[in-house]
Structure formats: structure tokens, C-alpha cells
């Protein structure tokens, strides 16, 4: 024999097993998260909602910084609606 009792090898194997179990646990958790379609859809919806809110806030900031173009667009849209209503009344 080489003078060792093999306890170092056994302990090294045990540590390898502990590490393999930890890695496997992480892999299983990752797969379970990917398989949870409801949770992924909720997360996606939440992300979309956050982006939309950010865009709305950004648009609000743009209107506050320079309201004239926005007011002109709204006035133009209102005028177009009035013209369309008048055309419909003439036809109807």
C-alpha cells in the first residue's frame, strides 16, 4: 500500500456528490421555472405593462415640455371628426 487509508479519497467523492446534487438542484429549478408557463406569461405581461406605462409617462413629459404640437394635433383630429359628422348628416 501507499500509506494512506483512503479516507481522503472517500471525502473527495463525498464532496463531488454534494456538488453534483447542488448542480442538479439548480438545473431542476431552472427547468421548473421554464415549464411554469403561467408564471412566465404573468412576468411577460408585467414587463409589457411596465414598458407601456413608461411610454405613457414619456409622452406626458413630451406634452408638458412642448404642448403646442399636441394641441394642434388634437384640434386637427377634432376638426376632422366634425367634418365627417357633417358629411354623414348630409348623406343620411
UniProtKB/TrEMBL annotation:
InterPro entries in alphabetical order: DUF3618
Keywords: Membrane, Transmembrane, Transmembrane helix
Transmembrane spans: 68-87
Name of the protein described by the UniProt record: DUF3618 domain-containing protein
Organism: Phytohabitans aurantiacus
Amino acid at each position: 500500500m501507499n500509506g494512506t487509508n483512503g479516507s481522503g479519497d472517500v471525502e473527495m467523492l463525498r464532496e463531488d456528490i454534494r456538488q453534483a446534487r447542488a448542480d442538479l438542484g439548480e438545473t431542476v429549478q431552472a427547468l421548473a421555472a421554464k415549464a411554469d408557463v403561467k408564471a412566465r406569461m404573468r412576468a411577460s405581461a408585467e414587463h409589457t405593462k411596465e414598458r407601456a406605462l413608461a411610454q405613457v409617462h414619456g409622452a406626458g413629459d413630451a406634452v408638458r415640455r412642448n404642448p403646442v404640437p399636441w394641441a394642434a394635433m388634437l384640434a386637427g383630429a377634432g376638426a376632422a371628426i366634425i367634418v365627417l359628422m357633417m358629411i354623414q348628416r348630409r348623406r343620411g
